[in-house]
Each structure stands twice: as structure tokens, then as C-alpha cells.
């Protein structure tokens, strides 16, 4: 029997287990995928800890994970775009990708380009479409200056590259350890912490847009810098939408196989880098989330079922 990550109650990483489960059977419009890589994301930890119960409650036993890449094992009777043996990138909305086999809607899959490594393919969906939606939300054009908080994180590291592709000058807030990576991708690195507003003003005469991937008080910082609320997007501070009129467009706004295909194409062409911090076998899922909880990581963590 195939194995999958499961948890029976809310809690810390200790509630995560890898258990044997029945082989999933694809419905007419579904595809059964043998998972080669599955990314992990901060939102999953928050759901597992019960912090998002009011918005996205868990039903137990719960699986975990949205990101996936793998090989088609079986296609449903109505599926025409995929066949057994096809290499695919995709996502599931059923908290189920951290497993050896997962069901995905055919509409949530796209072909994996040969030039995209499995690790990257399996880590692309949540962070990639979130970054894509955030950059789109602040409507960047050539000549704009945008600040990105958490600029070297899973979402931020993609957002800064997409913002550069849009023609913007990009200021990336990150620890000094990540400044060289940011500079190498055409980003102006600025250290976060006390005095950050002054350091941003020194780097740019005017800030036109702000993408907040971290939370804390970055929305207020953006407003203090004179950014219009309509050009501030946060993927963390949902309370700031009502309070300040900013945007909170993220993975839900960007979620589509078409966006995933566009991002995968950029990766295959060498025009977008998805940094991978670490990989873990499925049965070390607890260790993977322990590393994620440390924060300040450059890029993504992937599980390899």
C-alpha cells in the first residue's frame, strides 16, 4: 500500500505521521500521479497547528500538501490531455500531495518541461502562483520601483525575479547572508530591521509599489513610504485589507494550470530560478517542517516520496 502524510489532530510537528493508505482511484476527470517531489509551505504548518481553523478548518484524519510533480499512473475515463507515463506538474486542493500517490484534477496539471528538475517542479505551485499574483496585483510597469519584504524566501525569491521581468527596479529586504544572491538577480538588497525605512529612501527616491511576503508591520511601512494602498499587496496581513485598503492577492488569485505552465516555461528557459534549500524523504516530513519553522531560508524545501 502507498504511504502518505497524515495527522489526526491539531498540533506541532509531532502530530505528523507517514502511514499506509489505500491506493486512490481516479474519478472521470482526475489523474492518479506517482509523486516524484512535493514542496512544503508555511500555510500548511499554520493549518496543522490550528491557527487557520476559522478560515480553513481541517477534517481528520487530514493529509497535507498542495504542490506536486510526478508521473501519471492512471488517467480518468474523461481525461484526454494526459496519459500513463506523462511527466506533470500540478496541484491539489485536497491537502494530499505529500504522498507516494495523489489524485489531481486534470485541469490542475500541466506538462513538465524536460528542463525543469523534479525538485523544482514539485516546489513550484504555491510559491510560484502566489508570487505571480502578488506582482500582478501591484501593476508594475517599466520605471516603477517596488520593495519586496522577505525577498529571499520561497515566495519573495520568485517575486523579485518576476518584478524585474516586468521592468521594475526592485529593492529586496533580506538578511545580509542573502544580499549576494539578490544582487546577482538584479535586485537592490537592503537589510531589514531598525532604520529600514531610511535605508529604502537612500536606495530609491520614490517607492511606487510594495509586496509583503513576511507580515509584521510592513504594510504600515509601505504606507509611510507613500505607496498608494492599491499598489500594496500582502500575502500575510489579511487584517490590513479592511484596515488600510491594501490588496491580499496570493495563491488563490493565481491558482491555475496556465500560470503554472508559464512559470515552468520560464524555469526551463533559464529565466527564473527556484532556489531549493533542502530535500527530505517523505518519512522525514517532521524534520522538513522543523527546518521550515526556523525561517529566514532562501527558497524552498521539498519532500521526495
Structure, described:
This protein is α/β, with parallel strands linked by helices and 305 residues long. The longest helix is centred in the middle third of the chain and has 13 residues, at 125-137. It has helices spanning 42-48, 118-121, 125-137, 156-165, 179-184, 196-203, 218-224, 239-244, 251-254, 257-268, 285-294; strands at 3-6, 17-20, 30-40, 67-75, 87-91, 101-105, 109-111, 145-149, 169-173, 188-190, 209-212, 232-234, 276-281, 300-304.
Name the features.
five-stranded parallel β-sheet; 24% strand; 305 residues; seven-stranded mixed β-sheet; 11 helices; 14 strands; globular; 29% helix; single chain; alpha/beta
Short description:
With 305 residues, the chain is of the alpha/beta class. The protein has eleven helices and 14 strands.
Task: Evaluate the radius of gyration.
Answer: 19 Å
Amount of beta strand = 15-25%
Helix content: 25-40%
The number of distinct β-strands equals 14
Computed structural class: alpha/beta
Which geometry do the CA atoms define?
A: globular
Low-confidence stretches: none
Distance between the termini: 13 Å
| Number of alpha- plus pi-helical segments | 11
Task: Write the SSE topology.
Blueprint: E1 3-6, E2 17-20, E3 30-40, H1 42-48, E4 67-75, E5 87-91, E6 101-105, E7 109-111, H2 118-121, H3 125-137, E8 145-149, H4 156-165, E9 169-173, H5 179-184, E10 188-190, H6 196-203, E11 209-212, H7 218-224, E12 232-234, H8 239-244, H9 251-254, H10 257-268, E13 276-281, H11 285-294, E14 300-304
Parallel strand pairs: 8-9, 8-11, 9-10, 11-12, 13-14
Antiparallel strand pairs: 1-2, 3-4, 3-6, 3-14, 4-5, 5-7
Helix pairs in contact: 3-4
